[in-house]
Amino acid sequence: MGELGAGVVLSNVEDIYALVPGLLTIIPAVLDMRGCISSALASRIGTGTHLGFISWDLGFNDELKNNIYAALLMSVLLSAVLGALGYFVSVILNVQGVSFVQLLLVSLIAGAVAGFMQAGITVFISLYAAKRGIDPDNVTIPIVATLGDVISVLCIFLAVRVVDILLVYVGGV
Asked: What is the Cα–Cα distance from 120 to 96, expressed in whole angstroms?
């Protein structure tokens, strides 16, 4: 149902594709990236709970902080790479009116915001499942992979609006 919701949102916001030409070149990669990073974080937290390094009772210890930091760093760095690659693919495909700055900013903003949201959700679900005696590996990854698509679509929509407003005030790019 979550995947269906993300698809419905994407199909109903067609006006954002006109605001940022070339956006369609990065959407699949952004969605896939979010699921991969969140699933890897969930897996690492699950392993940490099994080994006793991470738990609800231990709070935000160094092990948990380092895993969250790595996931957020990957989100930001890969978002920048995807924005740049999206621009070059758009140029190769001869997409008219494509802007490097627009694609880069949309990808960065959407990736960073979705990364922060998804990291929080992933940590909460993983630790809550472990506390309740449920194996986090069986619960967290399917949930965060699905939620990642929904969150990413909403963050892309938000990022397009923010970038559009920023570029109007800055003078356009």
From this structure: 38
Structural domains in the chain plus CATH codes: 20-170 (1.10.357.20)
Tens-binned pLDDT, residue by residue, of the chain (173 aa) = 656 666 666 666 666 666 677 888 888 888 888 888 999 999 999 899 988 888 877 778 889 999 999 999 999 999 999 999 999 999 999 888 888 998 999 999 999 999 999 999 999 999 999 889 888 888 888 888 888 888 888 898 899 889 888 877 876 55
* H helix or E strand, kind and range, residue 101: helix 100-131
**In the numeric block, which tokens belong to residue 115?**
């990364």
The distance from CA 153 to its chain's CA centroid, rounded to whole angstroms, is: 9
Rounded-to-integer distance, Cα 107 and Cα 83, Å: 5
Using CB atoms within 10 Å of the CB of residue 18, give its burial: 0 to 12 exposed, 13 to 18 middle, 19+ buried.
Answer: exposed
CB atoms closer than 10 angstroms to residue 156: 27
User: Are the beta carbons of 107 and 30 closer than 8 angstroms?
Assistant: yes
How is 48-87 classified by DSSP, letter by letter?
HHHHTSS-TTT-S-HHHHHHHHHHHHHHHHHHHHHHHHHH
pTM over 0.90: no
